[in-house]
Amino acid sequence: RIDKSHAASAIIMQRELERIMPILSNQFGVPVDLIFGRGRKQRIIDARLMAYAYLRERGYSLPLIAKSMSGRDHGTVVKGLLRWQSHMDTLPEFKAAWERFSQAVQQ
Q1: Is the distance from CB of 16 to CB of 67 less than 8 angstroms?
Q2: Contact, 49 vs 83, CB < 8 A?
Q3: What's the pLDDT at 10?
Q4: Which end of the chain is more exposed for a tag (fewer CB within 10 A), N or C?
């Protein structure tokens, strides 16, 4: 049995991903499919971390975020969010990139 509220959240989140991924792709200079992929280049990872953080800030569950990001495990998202916070606290250029992304999303 499928929880209707979970299914609705998944649909809404998919629309949000369709809106934010081109912004992240443009900002970091990497194709959208690489953000969803398993790439380990820093630009790809940073874009992926920002997607995790944005979705979490919007109130989506860790399992739903994980599933929407190419079927990752929710533990991967937890680690990614911890890394995002660490970068925000210690890397001014990462924090500036987050601020640019946040502004772009609001337009």
Answers
A1: no
A2: yes
A3: 86
A4: N
